[in-house]
From TrEMBL:
<dbReference type="InterPro" id="IPR036390">
    <property type="entry name" value="WH_DNA-bd_sf"/>
</dbReference>
<feature type="region of interest" description="Disordered">
    <location>
        <begin position="1"/>
        <end position="20"/>
    </location>
</feature>
<dbReference type="InterPro" id="IPR036388">
    <property type="entry name" value="WH-like_DNA-bd_sf"/>
</dbReference>
<dbReference type="Pfam" id="PF12840">
    <property type="entry name" value="HTH_20"/>
</dbReference>
<protein>
    <recommendedName>
        <fullName>ArsR family transcriptional regulator</fullName>
    </recommendedName>
</protein>
<dbReference type="InterPro" id="IPR011991">
    <property type="entry name" value="ArsR-like_HTH"/>
</dbReference>
Length: 192
């Protein structure tokens, strides 16, 4: 069996992991579009390691939900896609809109997990969600983020190299948000 065999849609999806896989493919497509501007399903497949049919399906789904749109082209069979062009009245920069979209997909996946985790195999029916508040300087916050990124480095190649995945490995959403907590208006006056 080759690495390409492992990337076929039937191997990349299963009843229990389908939602996570869909989120993974769509997020990868959105990241790619943010990076390169426009892409066809065939180009996305070559860059991401999925089949062109799978990429085409998810690009159409993202378009159906208003996240991407067909880019202008000269006809022919090739259908280039791009991130949906929002009207300037939104006021938000494109990166901010993309970040909001990514957070929305993360939140959607989390809610889906909460409602469907009883359908997962027994050994996967738990999660490792946690949160903490720490008093940090901006430099310390950056160091914490860097430490988390370094901790994930040994696992990053498994996305593009299915043969590097150990038996029983499944896609797991790893979401970290570090941000300063802003004081409430009432608290500001008491600290002045």
């Amino acid at each position: 069996m080759t690495e390409d065999d492992l990337n076929t849609p039937s191997d990349r999806t299963s009843d229990t992991g389908n939602e996570l896989r869909e989120h993974e493919v769509r997020t990868a497509l959105l990241d790619l579009l943010a990076e390169v501007g426009t892409v066809t399903a065939t180009e996305a497949a070559a860059r991401l390691g999925y089949s062109s049919g799978l990429c085409s399906f998810h690009l159409r789904q993202l378009a159906r939900h208003g996240h991407v749109e067909e880019a202008p082209h000269r006809g022919g069979r090739a259908r280039p896609w791009r991130l949906k062009q929002h009207t300037p009245t939104t006021g938000a920069p494109a990166k901010e809109q993309f970040d909001d979209l990514a957070r929305g997909l993360e939140d959607e996946s989390w809610q889906q997990w909460l409602t469907q985790r009883d359908q997962a195999p027994t050994e996967w029916r738990h999660d490792e969600a946690f949160s903490a508040v720490a008093y940090l300087t901006p430099e310390e916050m950056s160091r914490v983020a860097d430490a988390i990124r370094r901790a994930l480095v040994p696992y990053q190649d498994r996305e593009q190299r299915p043969l590097a995945r150990p038996d029983g490995a499944r896609p797991v959403a790893l979401i970290t948000r570090l941000f300063p907590l802003l004081p409430h208006a009432k608290d500001e006056t008491s600290q002045a």
